[in-house]
Amino acid sequence: MTATRRRVVAAIAGLPLALAAAPAALANTTGDNRRMRTLYIAGDSTAAQKYADAAPETGWGMALPFFLHRDIAVDNHAVNGRSSKSFIDEGRLAPILDAIRPGDFLLIQFGHNDEKTADPTRYTEPWTTYQEHLRQYVDGARARGARPVLATSVERRKFDSAGNAVPTHGEYPAAMRALAEEEGVALLDIQALSIALWQKLGVEETKKYFNWTDTEQDNTHFNPPGAIAVARLVAEQLVAQSVLATRDVRRLDDEIPESWITWPEA
């Protein structure tokens, strides 16, 4: 399968069935000669594609295509349990850099698993090894004419006894913010935006956004409403930080049906 064909397939897979009837639907019909660009995601379980055995758990990367124009394909490489270090060490960055082209984007979100101090295969220190690993993503994308984009880790659901949303990522968001400023990289501050959203929603309402089921109370991973809400924040910030133009996004103010989220067989 050619690289172009893979991008078309990935774009179709990220759309609800009603919008993915045929590859022709992805053809540019605007007359402005824009080519299909690809937004690659390198990240952890909060962004990753989930499969039927994990439903209703949903990564926000599964919902992002609903908010992007169909000449921007999403190629989601995020994987459960990975840190900025282990993603590279397992050889997962290399295929992205092999495929990425000038004009494409590399969206980088790590931090949840970089915090695992007891696991040397994943742990990074915020102000040294974390930043050093993030630079490898940034430099790799830039060397290939693509645009790197850093995204601070989406917040977990945690509240104190007074009902205040509590940050859980320590120094990692600050370290990423500093790196973005130092390197001149666009930053999507999803940590700050998500904790503000959880505060607005409150203790009980946020349960409807996380993977709370009859058998599990998961305050890290999302269900469809949560994934859609975070993907909306990402899309809005891609425009706010001038990574994408207004014409590149859609449905930012629309209700997205939960039924658009599907979990393929592994």
UniProtKB/TrEMBL annotation:
Keywords: Hydrolase, Signal. The keyword Signal applies. One of its GO terms (molecular function) is hydrolase activity. InterPro entries: RhgT-like, SGNH_hydro, SGNH_hydro_sf, TAT_signal. The keyword Signal applies. Residues 43-226 form the SGNH hydrolase-type esterase domain. SUPFAM superfamilies: SGNH hydrolase (SSF52266). It comes from the Bacteria. Residues 1-27 form the signal peptide. Belongs to the 'GDSL' lipolytic enzyme family. This is Rhamnogalacturonan acetylesterase. It comes from Streptomyces himalayensis subsp. himalayensis.
